[in-house]
Amino acid sequence: MAVARPVCSHSCLFLSFSLVSLIFFFFFFSNSLLSDPNLRISRGTVETGINVFVAELPRSLNYGLLDKYWSSPPDSRIPSDPDHPTRRPGKYPENPLIKQYSAEYWIMGDLETPPEKRIGSFAKRVFSKSEADVVFVPFFATLSAEMELGNGKGSFRKRSGNEDYQRQRQVLDFLKNTQAWKRSGGRDHVFVLTDPVAMWHVRHEIALSILLVVDFGGWFRLDSKSFNASTSFPERIEHTQVSVIKDVIVPYTHLLPRLHLSRNQRRHSLLYFKGAKHRHRGGLIREKLWDLLVDEHDIVMEEGFPNATGREQSIRGMRNSDFCLHPAGDTPTSCRLFDAIQSLCIPVIVSDNIELPFEGILDYSEFSVFVSVTDALTPKWLAYHLRSFSERDKESFRSRMAKVQSVFVYDNGRADGIGPIQPDGAVNHIWKKVQQKVPMVKEAVIRERRKPVGTSVPLRCQCI
């Protein structure tokens, strides 16, 4: 009598069991990823976020400064200061000279948001230094500097009687006494220095830290003897200054409202610019460009101040022009670039030494026109070049620009700045760039620790 063979062999049963286990593991792992707010899935890869410890500075160095600002007299530098006599306690100033640098407020607001509401945040706040990738320094350095500048440049440059210097000193004295600073020499500490003069008096003491800056213009020492229009800054950067290797370029806060692509209308001007004609240092090119372009029939060059009237003029001008001119000023960039992006006005960047936020994540050539200083200063060249772009070219620029407008937005819609942020906004992109610096920082810390006592090795940060 023949013995019936099993329908499935042992190997078949084993394969079936393995397949079921694999499927179970896949669904379990996938659900775990999706339920973990500290993980992000982007283009098929898992982003783990960055762990941030917030240094325990007193409130007087951040939100307390806002209280002090709102009790101060009007800013003498700006006509019709929008913050006075109106009072908005707890809110960052609307004064455009200060608001354009407000990154410190929005980054801090994200970290102050309760954990259960921070689902979209790339940065995870931790409360143990041992768990942290970086230490965030919650000092409103820009607000502190601007409040002192409002008293006049003379007092700002002096240390005696300078309240901003006293606050800078208070921050550094506190940090240098912490184990976190002593462990890394400050290399893993993150400072927000969007104003070119923020932390002016103590920069040499934070040279090794991760600095969030809008550009490098305020950090270069210009050699006036070797200055010319095409080489505004030295080729090499001393280690006591800034570097694209360790630091992060962040956006200015845009001052003009966002124009959605669906609401874009026919534009009647070729090129638009509004700002001060006369600037210093690398901004000398602006005056030369002005003289070359001011008489072109479809180019609008307006001189004005960023007060309420100037704001409305800028909105109309940028939304009515195909291209917006972005020449260097006192520094290589300005908030004008980000106003242009929000206005869907194609930026024309004439600034040979410019550094831009989030490069490597974004390709600015997809929605901007880059022009060398030499070409821009050739009579008739720039207008002829811009007129060579077809309507289809300009529509493509604007379409690609519309896709990245949110990347440059800080505002979370909350009056006090504390609340959930836009997942695809500026704050998350900043932390993604900071995370890229972490491996290098950890390597530098370990290398520093193994040096024999008394060894002196020159710091090298001659940057690309």
Explain what the structure shows.
By secondary structure, this protein is an alpha/beta fold. The protein contains 15 helices and 13 strands. Helix 11 links the parallel strand 11 (321-327) and strand 12. Helix 5 (141-149) packs antiparallel against helix 7 (163-176). The protein is globular and about 65 Å long. The N and C termini lie far apart (84 Å). The model is unreliable at 1-8, 22-46 and 220-240 (pLDDT under 50).
Structural class: alpha/beta
Question: In DSSP terms, counting alpha (H) and pi (I) runs of 4 or more, how many helices?
Answer: 15
Main β-sheet, spatial strand arrangement? 4-3-5-6-7-8
SS strand fraction? 5-15%
How far apart are the termini?
Answer: 84 Å
Number of strands: 13
Order of helices and strands: HEEEHHHEEHHHHEEEEHEHEHEEHHHH
How much is the radius of gyration in Å?
Answer: 26 Å
Approximately how much helix is present in the residues? 25-40%
Low-confidence stretches: 1-8, 22-46, 220-240
The gross shape turns out to be globular
- The overall pLDDT average reads 83
Describe the largest sheet.
6 strands, parallel
Keywords: Glycosyltransferase, Golgi apparatus, Membrane, Signal-anchor, Transferase, Transmembrane, Transmembrane helix
Protein name: Exostosin GT47 domain-containing protein
Family: Belongs to the glycosyltransferase 47 family.
InterPro entries: Exostosin (IPR004263), Exostosin_GT47 (IPR040911)
